[in-house]
Amino acid sequence: MTTPVCTRATQPAAARPTYPSFSSYVQARGPVLMRAARSLTDPNDAEDLLQTALTKTFVAWDRIEDHRALDGYVRRALLNTRTSQWRKRKVDEFACEELPEPDPVPAPDPAELQGLRDAMWRAIMRLPPRQRAMVVLRYYEDLSEAQTAEIMEVSVGTVKSAVSRALVKLREDEELAPALFG
């Protein structure tokens, strides 16, 4: 059997009461234990902390031989529970009166998006047919380099170099650059 951890008592051992049931103990000592819980955490979390510690005490109620040392047992459960919570916590949460307003992200203008798509497609159409096919397969059809090489019946290295040259041409395209970079 385990004996509870005792803390310094304010009353002599003979004067401390024993409790016939768990509920009578909680009813009698609840306010004192709540103050102890509030001293360990913020008021919003104190009730949850105390409830968890009292649950642990309830589970061990039959094993606790000296009910005059219950306050020490519950305080130790409070401290151990709070320490465990603190160790597990990855992100601190802070309560606030008002939620911050998110920065509005302006919706893109559909006409500008369509203009960009049209400029991109015209630039792709100016590529040599083989480079155009590889760019379309890689980026529009979302195929891997190996799949593109298989379809085009070339090596993967050929796909890599041809797509690389095509992307350089697209970056340097006189019509596309103003549409992308303003």
UniProtKB/TrEMBL annotation:
UniProt entry tagged with the keyword Coiled coil: no
InterPro entries documented for this protein: RNA_pol_sigma-70-like (IPR039425), RNA_pol_sigma-70_dom (IPR014284), RNA_pol_sigma-E_actinobac (IPR014325), RNA_pol_sigma70_r2 (IPR007627), RNA_pol_sigma70_r4_t2 (IPR013249), RNA_pol_sigma_r2 (IPR013325), RNA_pol_sigma_r3/r4-like (IPR013324), WH-like_DNA-bd_sf (IPR036388)
Domain (RNA polymerase sigma-70 region) ranges: 27-90
Superkingdom of the organism of origin: Bacteria
SUPFAM superfamilies registered for this protein in UniProt: Sigma2 domain of RNA polymerase sigma factors, Sigma3 and sigma4 domains of RNA polymerase sigma factors
The UniProt record lists the keyword DNA-binding: yes
Domain RNA polymerase sigma factor 70 region 4 type: 118-170
Keyword vocabulary terms for this entry: DNA-binding, Sigma factor, Transcription, Transcription regulation
NCBIfam families: SigE-fam_strep, sigma70-ECF
Family label: Belongs to the sigma-70 factor family. ECF subfamily.
Protein name: SigE family RNA polymerase sigma factor
Annotated source species: Streptomyces catenulae
